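quick one
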Amino acid sequence: MSILPLLPLYHAFNRAYFEGSLTFGTRPLASVRWSDGRLRKTAGYYRRVNRFGRLHKGEIVLSRPILEKLPQSATESTLCHEMIHVWIDQVLKVKEGHGEHFYKRMAFINASQDRFQISVRHNFPVPQSAPKWWAICPSCGARFSYQRIVRGAACRSCCNTHYHGRWNANCLLEYHRVEKGV
Ligand SMILES: [Zn+2]
Ligand SMILES: [Zn+2]
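structure w/ zinc ion:
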């Protein structure tokens, strides 16, 4: 799944579900962008950017590492969720997280199409980080990926084959740091 351009989606959702209220002229009330590779805790967020000591324009950021591997509907529901926050913050101008206004608008959008469903929480799987270590069996050459060194871990298949299933130091895995890009 490649990453979608977000601004055209923003404009389409604005017309379809927010009566065009999320633009000022043709300018969106919040800018929309993809995160870099580090936003891994949440699929997206909306915030007001501080500038010159004042609350300035709003910004929606969507997580590239979480959403790029999911179907397009995940990006759509996340963007729409954040746009509800923009609407509450800048059109209704009320302080609310996921309250009455949020639920009403979410239910309205969910009922008016069946491409995607918005939820209150973004329940998407968070990608595992890349393995840091290769553990290699000196006897058979099998490779296993590990996040951290596990002391005393041995190759199960070699212990089974050569030592009647008992742990043996000859089958101890050797750790090698994973090189980036390998
Ligand atoms: Zn939210
Ligand atoms: Zn082995």
